[in-house]
Amino acid sequence: MAGKRIGVLTGGGDVPGLNSVIKGVVYRGNELGFEVTGIRRGWEGLTHVNLEDPLSRAKYILPLNRANTRTIDRTGGTFLHTSRTNPAKMKELPETLRGKDFPIVENTKKGVTSKVFDVTSQVLKNLESLKLDYLVAIGGDDTLSYAARLDKEGYPVISIPKTMDNDVRNTEYCIGFSTAITRAVDAIERQRTTVGSHERVGVFRVFGRDAGHTALYTAYVTSIRCCIPEYKVNLNKLIELLIEEKRNNPSNYSLVILSEGAEWEGYKVREYGEADAYGHRKKMSVGEDLSDEIRKQTREETVVSDLTYDLRGGSPDFLDKLVATTYANIALDAITEGKHGLMTAIVDGCFTLSPIPDPKLGPRKVNVEAMYSKEHYRPRYEAKLGFPIFLTHANDK
Fold first, then answer.
1. What are phi and psi of 106, to 5 degrees?
2. Is 53 a catalytic residue?
3. Structure confidence at residue 277 (pLDDT)
4. What pLDDT sits at residue 271?
5. What's the rounded Cα separation, in Å, for the pair 250 and 91?
6. Are 212 and 228 in contact (CB under 8 A)?
7. Which residue in the list 73, 165, 289, 320 is annotated as catalytic?
8. Is residue 1 over pLDDT 60?
């Protein structure tokens, strides 16, 4: 396997731990005699690059070695930068590809159909021109969905799951999740003093467009109520629970955390802005909407905190560094063994390799029956004997 050329990229939203993966791939690859090349700005690096133009090549292609990755794991974000480019569904062609003939496909999202370009042939051509034998793609559902496409086209890919939503299928853990929970818990515990001092209801919003893992697990360790996309609560009951808890609290306050995609009966989260390359629009704050309802129904004052982007920032915690480094080395093990079309994963609490998830299945959801109390709108703590360490299963629907 000596002399293999490995490409690595990060796509989608950044999370703490990405740089630990990149460094792990470079360091292990160096030991194996591999040459590692970084693709900058995610899939954009393979759609927009003009390899015949030195400036364009320098913008998107970065040879990686021990010297330029030695300290990157000490910080968060991604050393290679990122984007939300989808080569299979591009609304318009980059300047370098204009005038070329690419398949035009129909893209339907929420009843709206548009025509987009599929430039996969150019991605494959660029990978061939770079003489890369393998690609390590680090990302969430969206990034990995295109990684699966490339592998089906015959180009060998190993994927590594990251997302602080922890909602990628076929694994119980994604890089970034632990740090996000650590950040959320810290913010909530610090804000207890303010919410308590003013005797209000504290409302916290976190990421979680389709799955409520981040809100649920934060609530699990802070002992507060939560609302998740997988279950629509009754608004009146939720408010009654929060006010009852507030009155029973010696400091006269209560707290609730909501996923950005959480809804209650008769309510739908509002969206705004143009959809990204994967069909996602930004969501209006369900936290602000809940706050309005609480004030209207009870005249109680609220404090609303949006914890979303703050959870992405900063260096990774121990667990994310551990998992990121291990995933990187598992990926290199797979490459040395000639495997592809697989994703590093944790299943039943053990490190393993899983198939790259089928994008048609969507994100992995919270197991409501096992983890969420429909009566109290909070996590369930009972009956956890025999569960894997992250209290979830890779095959949860």
1. -90, 130
2. no
3. 59
4. 73
5. 56
6. yes
7. 165
8. no
